[in-house]
Design goal:
The structure is a homodimer of 173-residue chains. Chain A is an alpha+beta fold and 173 residues long. Helices cover 46% and strands 18% of the residues of chain A. The first copy, chain A, contains seven helices and six strands, in the order ααβααββββαβαα. The first copy, chain A, has a three-stranded antiparallel sheet. In chain A, a hairpin with a 5-residue loop joins strand 4 and strand 5. At the A-B interface, strand 4, helix 5 and strand 6 of A face strand 4, helix 5 and strand 6 of B. Strand 6 of chain A pairs antiparallel with strand 6 of chain B, so a sheet runs across the interface. The structure holds a DNA duplex (25 and 25 nucleotides).
Chain lengths: 173, 173
DNA sequence: GTTAGTGCAAACCTTTTGCAGCTCT
DNA sequence: AGAGCTGCAAAAGGTTTGCACTAAC
């Protein structure tokens, strides 16, 4: 697990590996998903009921500034919160289905090309990149076509994606 | 001005062109910059002191759903608010200097390539894309190197960009 | 023993909502 | 005339801050 690498990296920086941080690191790195602060908080609380939400935010900020995790918006599907993932060696784009919320990752040469062109064109020193693509996955395209036959026309005219049937919504505990 | 096109597009949809909306459309389309809701609100208030902040939010949401404006995050430089620009025909990336806040736009073939690959690879129907690149512009690279010679070492170790000397900060009126 | 890190409560910023009244078409 | 919009007040959602206490090194 890259978990150990993260810990080494933090130790080198003189960051203390508190119990709370170990729990959070493990969760961020272990879960295959893109977690937001609230979800991470809930998972962490299961392991340590005393762990505070504020600690989650502070830890995420620290990890972001340390370059160990990347912050995503995922097209604000599901709200204005941020999502996090451990920083991979390989740059990739996030593809979000605006109907079902599924997130795919795309690794491909256009991203490296883009990076190089921006560097040479502007003499820009790139630290972070974020590419997000929103639309409908192949599965939802079919479902949507089916829905449209029956659904009210007003929504289609306004081009407002049909409200998700299952996924988001997050409230304070 | 594309302003007229926007109005036509809205009229077609049966959206009422109220005085408030005309003011806002003009500002979004006219200002060369990427405005956030608060800035837009301030500018709008100068033209009509009665215009409410809520109307700004409602109008932006409506324009976004109508596909007339795009919503940007600009790497959350300056806060968690969103920025807006009238939707251009040409896809482009936003390049944000994390030190001075300057935003450049990059039009180039990697973006179209990326789009095509994602469509064919996943059978994905793309509605919106957002590519943001954060780092240091050529100008700030020099300034930063100079600063580093004198600055405290702690900040460098933590890899935290030096706090901006001039730009952000936004408070409620 | 220091100093960084934590928990708690309260603040903060950005955005949304409910509702009565106004205004485009 | 009447649906669609607006303004106002209030709330919600997400994140940050101040401060006294705790724990990692």
């Amino acid at each position: 697990m890259a978990n150990a690498d993260m810990k080494d990296s933090l130790r080198e920086k003189g960051v203390r590996l508190t119990r709370q941080r170990q729990i959070l690191l493990e969760l961020i790195d272990g879960s295959g998903k893109h977690l937001d602060a609230e979800e991470l908080f809930r998972l962490a609380q299961a392991k340590d009921p005393k762990l505070n939400r504020v600690t989650v935010y502070r830890t995420l900020k620290m990890l972001k500034h340390s370059g160990l995790v990347d912050e995503l918006d995922l097209m604000h599907y599901g709200g204005d919160q941020h999502y996090y993932e451990t920083r991979l060696k390989q740059e990739h784009a996030h593809i979000i289905c605006l109907r079902c919320g599924k997130v795919e990752e795309f690794f491909g040469e256009p991203l490296a090309r883009l990076r190089k062109q921006v560097e040479s064109h502007f003499g820009f020193e790139i630290l972070i990149t974020r590419t997000e693509i929103g639309g409908y996955c192949s599965h939802c395209q079919v479902l949507r076509a089916r829905e449209m036959e029956h659904a009210a026309v007003s929504a289609e005219l306004a081009d407002i994606p049909a409200p998700p049937k299952s996924p988001p919504s997050r409230k304070r505990g």
